[in-house]
Amino acid sequence: MKMKTICCMLLAALLLAACNKDDQGEEEIVVKSQPWVTMITSVNGLGDNGYNDILVNGLYVFHEKTGVPLSVIQPKDMVEAERIYSQWLIDHAYADSSVLIVASSAYEKMVSHSTVSLKGSGSRVLLLESQAEIDGVSTFYIKRYGASYIAGALMSDRPAYVLAAAPGVPSLEESIRGFRDGHQSSPDHHPSFKVEYLADGEEGFAMPDSAYHVMANHIKICATDTNVVFKEVVFPLLGSSFVGAMKAMGDYAFSIAVLVGIDSDRRGQSTCLPYSLVVHADNVIADYLCQWIEGTPWPATQSFGLREGTTDILFDMDYKPNSAMLFFKYGIIDMQGLVSKYDLLKTIAIEKEEKI
């Protein structure tokens, strides 16, 4: 009888504890944990000295300041990315200090359709390259119109060729629009402006071999059709595929086309690169994470661009054509003249970017 009484008392105590837990809400089950930052890169997005590598650099800057541990995960395809994302949400649903950075607008649908919510007030999800307002998720978007406008206007006297990873990607379409508007801003601009896409979907960002063949074929066709030395400005919006286009440009010595570097400082990587459109996403990421560790709330969504210094044009003042023959035949691009032109264009580009 005594044992039965004890068992009944224990059962009553457990039921009372459960009721009290329900009364206090779900915060009771949030587990104190070490702060930790995880980033899911775009598919096969690392190692190209491009956008994803810039983001990782921002993570390391934050880590050096704070010591907070990092994890960087590179999915091989969208299916794996969705699995990783879902599992992270499940594993960290009740953690109090975890951040997940989702580093591509390609994941917007995946993030917006998720039904798992984080209970810990210190845990957050940040989706990059998106202006969507998603419940429980912060987003930021880097405006590229202004810097692209300058990139196009600097070489408005040349035929223009845009090779982009895929159609319909907001950041790419904005860049194409800016580059076209800049290229056509001069009354004496060259009338030729062509846009071509590498693939139908996000896979175009990770197809360097295809980018090489498309770029090489384009150079051959231009040289055959015009029977003159190929002279264009090429704007490659390709992500990791950029390296393929850059290699093709370097392999054809008869070309004096110039290539605009994209995302990072490309100086010294090719003799075809007089300037780069740089994106300082690393600074943005480091600032977001410092705000998080200090307990500062993130806005639901915000944008950065040319005015904030998040995008800009970086010149290679040592630029020369890619062969001695072309150097003597055509001279060199007046880099100081381009810098002077940039100074005049920047104010215009900022005003135009802020109106779109």
Strands in their spatial order, largest beta sheet: 2-1-3-4-5-12
Count of helical segments? 11
Structural class: alpha/beta
Number of domains: 2
Question: How many strand segments?
Answer: 13
Uncertain residue segments: 1-27
The CATH topology of the largest domain comes to: Rossmann fold
Q: Report the CATH C-level class of the largest domain.
A: Alpha Beta
Average pLDDT, rounded to a whole number, is: 85
Largest sheet: 6 strands, parallel
Head-to-tail CA distance between termini = 80 Å
By CATH's scheme, which homologous superfamily of the largest domain applies? Response regulator
Strand content: 15-25%
Percent of residues in helices comes to 40-55%
Computed CA radius of gyration, to the nearest angstrom: 25 Å
CATH architecture of the largest domain: 3-Layer(aba) Sandwich
Assembly category: single chain
Give an account of the 3D structure:
The structure is a single chain. The protein is of the alpha/beta class and 356 residues long. It has two domains: 31-143 and 283-304, Rossmann fold, CATH 3.40.50.2300; 145-279 and 308-355, Response regulator (Rossmann fold, 3-Layer(aba) Sandwich). Helices cover 42% and strands 16% of the residues. The protein contains eleven helices and 13 strands. Strands 2-1-3-4-5-12 form a six-stranded parallel sheet, sandwiched between helices. The chain has a four-stranded parallel sheet with strand order 7-6-8-9, with helices on both faces. 42% of the residues are buried.
